[in-house]
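Our preliminary data section would be incomplete without showing what the modeling component actually yields. Below, a chain of 238 amino acids is followed by its predicted structure, encoded as tokens that our downstream tools consume directly.
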Amino acid sequence: MTTPRDKLPQKSSHAEVDAFLQQVKSRPIVKPDKQRGRLLFAMDATASREPLWDRACHIQGQMFEETAALGGLDVQLAYYRGFMEFAAIPWASSGRDLLSHMTSIHCAAGQTQIAKVIQHGISETGKASIQALIFVGDAMEEDPAVLNRLAGQLGILGVPIFMFQDSFDPITERAFRDIARLSNGAYCQFDASSAEKLRELLCAVAVFAAGGHKALESYSRTHSAVVAKLTHQLIKSR
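Predicted structure:
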């Protein structure tokens, strides 16, 4: 259907164009929020881990504090305990939210399920990107070949695993080191007397998850040797 010549729309005048451009300029520019880092925080919650679990409850809030200036952090807690029980709580965006879940969980005797932890990391990465996986434990009672294969898969997906060993056991250390290496992550050891060391390790990985390698390198310059050691391992794996 044609429009009668006398009904054709009029061209916009210069004044109308100028008014429109001025209106566009006056609108605020909305910038998308920086994507928050996502960190999977996994712990052994078998019976012997009760003291460590309590320490982690007190420490975890500082991970959120250290990353606030980097755009923030979302953390998901995963754990295993008892007879083949494995669970992961909803993603938390604050220390208060995470603490409310942690304080409701009690440790129970059982075997290690590190393979489930890594498999869960692979599954979550398929939903949305994860910048790092932390695992804290003191034992390994599984097939190392299975763990190594899963660690390599997560490394291919770009998710380094940070294996933090509580106390010392050579078999566990070897397995933890291999998992960290194959995922392009890092390994560190601490003991019951070094709660401050655990705090620094957790905060350092949180900074990495929120801001990447550059943020971690900057963070390491003002913190202890344990953070520098962690950072050096990551640099070597790049």
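The domain at 37-237 is CATH 3.40.50.410 (Rossmann fold). The chain has one domain: 37-237. Preliminary results of this kind motivate Aim 1 of the renewal.
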